[in-house]
Fold:
Amino acid sequence: MIALYIKKLDSNARIPKYQTEEAAGFDLHALEDAEIAAGERALVRTGLAVAVPRGYELQVRPRSSLALKYGVTVLNTPGTVDSDYRGELLVILINLGRETYKINGGDRIAQAIVKTVEKVDLIEARELSDTMRGDGGFGSTGV
Structure:
């Protein structure tokens, strides 16, 4: 098991925890009250900073219950926190619902998962190998 060091930047911030023993992600909490009008987005503070180990990233993902019940989701899913970032964890939420969504400080607003990062050599090529699909894009393999 790897260690993820978490620093409170505000005394009201909540250290995340796994909700069950088998949970893949741990919940992130809003630091303060906020409202997101229908169709709008907001940058929500957590009041936390993390030290993600080298070779890993922290992925910020939606909570399924917020998406299902209220139409609120993480806009840049998954949001990536690189191992060299030490600033505050911020979550971009969007309200795809029909009513204003109210956030209370301490509410669980997203979940985070630590994943390994595989680096690749980026090599410019004049040609790429052929495949059956070729350059067929969106919907090219069927609906």
About this structure: The chain has a mean pLDDT of 95. Residues 64-70 form the longest helix (7 residues). Residues 131 and 141 are 13 Å apart (CA to CA). The chain has one domain: 5-116.
